[in-house]
Amino acid sequence: MRTLVTGGAGFIGSNFVHLTLDSRPDVEITVLDALTYAGSRASLAGVEDRIELVEGDIADAELVDRLVADHDLVVHFAAESHNDNSLDNPWPFVQTNVVGTFTLLEAVRRHGKRYHHISTDEVYGDLELDDPTRFTEATPYNPSSPYSSTKGASDLLVRAWVRSFGVQATISNCSNNYGPRQHVEKFIPRQITNVIDGVRPKLYGDGLNVRDWIHVDDHNRAVWAIIDRGEIGETYLIGADGEVDNRTVVRDILELMDQGADDYDHVTDRPGHDRRYAIDSTRLRTELGWAPEYPSFREGLAATIEWYRTHEDWWRPMKDATERKYAATQTVVE
Ligand code: NAD
Ligand code: TDX
Question: What is the pTM of this model?
């Protein structure tokens, strides 16, 4: 199966490429990636000779048309993905997440190709800490940030292209991923690399916000389950029952890295900061037989810390610029 992976040089997309090459000998991969600040050839180290890497923009209609025509399946990971950046400058989020997705959909419509759309639980907005409900496929869209609203817009385009034009698409909305090759702007890698550098972890606001963590390989195995066995036109939520508050994550990282559990700082909160995300993945589990393979968040976290300890060459080039950017807007608060 000839598969076009957009965003395959980013965090989740590159892990998808590695996992697929390890487990699916029937799949040939082309990566389409603009190699923005978030994408790097280094994330595809070791598999360069087994894939084709096309450096280009998903909003380039001519390029996308040519590539889609030549593949059986498109798995669409490419996005502007960081909430903090979307608050600073929303335009690239509209361009890549909305116009880029539109461009891909038009190409798969013209050529009649299978399309899987990667999205996020953030399209559903947030939950109160004491709300007993979790997000399901039926939860109404209610995004908070420029990032999540552009992802929601892209999901709605996919639904409309299925209904109006019969495009052969599926959608997945996943919770927060962690694992190797995640950019150091994101919460977990930022704190691990801070600790390696002797810098105290930075917790936004009161630190009681909850995220529902899943290992990136469990996410990507679910993506394959949906491509293999999912129903066309349907949406599947992906989550591993991994709700943890941010303060606990920081304390776990400090303990696993032999530091005092209270050696962190509170910094300026993110404007509009979503309080809690929580996924009910019953549909994926019962209809498609998926289950997470990582035994626990803490074990996955320990393995992730080990990856950053042994791959400083991968993250060091992006660390200083990332922290300089944060320093411009975040200060330590009591
Ligand atoms: P990332 O920022 O690490 O990677 C994004 C990749 O897309 C990069 O390689 C970048 O170069 C590429 N890209 C950006 N703009 C492009 C463009 N215009 N044309 C071509 N390539 C472009 O993001 P990620 O965390 O790997 O997220 C991947 C997908 O998964 C996104 O769609 C995101 O919304 C979704 N998602 C992420 C999470 C998470 O926790 N990280 C959770 C759920 C869903
Ligand atoms: O330094 C930090 N300190 C901190 O307390 C950073 C970078 C983040 N945080 C908090 C904010 C969030 O409550 O940690 C939590 C996680 O933050 P991010 O890593 O920025 O992720 P989030 O905003 O939850 O969004 C992520 O999950 C859903 C991904 O970035 C999205 O692409 C995905 O859709």
Answer: 0.99
